[in-house]
Design goal:
The chain is α+β, with helices and mostly antiparallel strands. The protein has one domain (24-138): Beta Barrel (OB fold (Dihydrolipoamide Acetyltransferase, E2P)), CATH 2.40.50.200. The protein has three helices and six strands.
Length: 139
């Protein structure tokens, strides 16, 4: 009986550890696009192009988790979520992230930039190029 309880506890502990290591997904499932370098997207942005980016979460909205900044090497991009339809955990900074979404090319609205910077955004929030993610996977 004791041995059975021990084995059951060990199995439960392993299952919990595996679940903790499993990627957390938000929004729509990723379609499996080929990842592209962020530097390429920023160098030649195509408004409306759907891309897959991989990197590290550099910043997250401190209030709700309603945006993030993805960093890849020395480049960063501000990422919002399609239709304000999902949020990411506010404690996600430093975690690896994969996302898919569309490239947005437009002059930033100064009021919007001030707002997101008050929530912890960096210089990427004021850039002309951003991403509107349809799905995010935090690893």
């Amino acid at each position: 009986m004791t041995r059975t309880l021990f084995l059951a506890a060990a199995v439960a502990a392993l299952a919990t550890a595996a679940a903790a290591d499993a990627p957390k997904t938000f929004g729509k499932p990723l379609a499996g696009l080929q990842a592209v370098p962020l530097a390429d997207v920023l160098a030649k942005p195509e408004n409306g192009r759907t891309v897959r980016l991989e990197g590290t979460i550099e910043r997250v909205c401190e209030n709700k988790g309603c945006w993030l900044e993805l960093k890849q090497e020395a480049k960063s991009v501000h990422v919002t979520f399609e239709n304000y339809g999902f949020f990411v955990p506010k404690d996600s900074i430093g975690k690896p992230v994969v996302l898919e979404g569309k490239v947005i090319v437009k002059d930033p609205d100064t009021d919007r930039v001030a707002h997101v910077q008050s929530e912890g955004a960096g210089a990427a929030a004021a850039a002309k190029v951003s991403i509107e993610a349809t799905g995010v996977e935090i690893r």
